[in-house]
């Protein structure tokens, strides 16, 4: 039984970065951002398939860049959808029937560790659907019209990261439901879909190394971390 696969959404254009190319193609330590998580996941023996969901307009660029990819036998490339969840859906649709569990990871989180991924494997097998998240270190306020309404207990606040993972059969079943009865909101991650359908989602403790690249200052932070 092929147990684990990963879908890597790389279809966004990263408009908040203000750069001429998608943020996943920006240089980080001599290679594009997306190659870090791609290589980390592909190098794990537990991962039997890696699906990269890319922007349609950049397909030839990715294909050329990956001509020398060491784990080409594991790699599948699909075109991403308009929304993130549609890119993930396209990626999951490309998985072989033998795959039991799928992890979804943002390529904009380039410094994920193998140890953290292995914790996700274990949680999936032992408990079920899960996501990586780290506790908030700040006090969180609910604000309306520029005025504080209430304070949320910090111990209840976790900052969602990726991977977010579940059984392949679960995702496929939920996508079918969504096609029959579209959601009234645009899901920003996989956990929000699972939550909507009342599927328990367990926490795997994350860390700041797994933070997301969103701005140019984040890029400089990651470059500094790699320099160390």
Automatic annotation (TrEMBL):
<feature type="site" description="Positions MEP for the nucleophilic attack">
    <location>
        <position position="154"/>
    </location>
</feature>
<dbReference type="GO" id="GO:0050518">
    <property type="term" value="F:2-C-methyl-D-erythritol 4-phosphate cytidylyltransferase activity"/>
</dbReference>
<dbReference type="InterPro" id="IPR029044">
    <property type="entry name" value="Nucleotide-diphossugar_trans"/>
</dbReference>
<feature type="site" description="Transition state stabilizer">
    <location>
        <position position="16"/>
    </location>
</feature>
<comment type="function">
    <text>Catalyzes the formation of 4-diphosphocytidyl-2-C-methyl-D-erythritol from CTP and 2-C-methyl-D-erythritol 4-phosphate (MEP).</text>
</comment>
<dbReference type="GO" id="GO:0019288">
    <property type="term" value="P:isopentenyl diphosphate biosynthetic process, methylerythritol 4-phosphate pathway"/>
</dbReference>
<dbReference type="InterPro" id="IPR001228">
    <property type="entry name" value="IspD"/>
</dbReference>
<dbReference type="Pfam" id="PF01128">
    <property type="entry name" value="IspD"/>
</dbReference>
<feature type="site" description="Transition state stabilizer">
    <location>
        <position position="23"/>
    </location>
</feature>
<comment type="similarity">
    <text>Belongs to the IspD/TarI cytidylyltransferase family. IspD subfamily.</text>
</comment>
<dbReference type="InterPro" id="IPR034683">
    <property type="entry name" value="IspD/TarI"/>
</dbReference>
<protein>
    <recommendedName>
        <fullName>2-C-methyl-D-erythritol 4-phosphate cytidylyltransferase</fullName>
        <ecNumber>2.7.7.60</ecNumber>
    </recommendedName>
</protein>
<dbReference type="InterPro" id="IPR050088">
    <property type="entry name" value="IspD/TarI_cytidylyltransf_bact"/>
</dbReference>
<keyword id="KW-0414">Isoprene biosynthesis</keyword>
<keyword id="KW-0548">Nucleotidyltransferase</keyword>
<keyword id="KW-0808">Transferase</keyword>
<comment type="pathway">
    <text>Isoprenoid biosynthesis; isopentenyl diphosphate biosynthesis via DXP pathway; isopentenyl diphosphate from 1-deoxy-D-xylulose 5-phosphate: step 2/6.</text>
</comment>
<feature type="site" description="Positions MEP for the nucleophilic attack">
    <location>
        <position position="212"/>
    </location>
</feature>
<dbReference type="InterPro" id="IPR018294">
    <property type="entry name" value="ISPD_synthase_CS"/>
</dbReference>
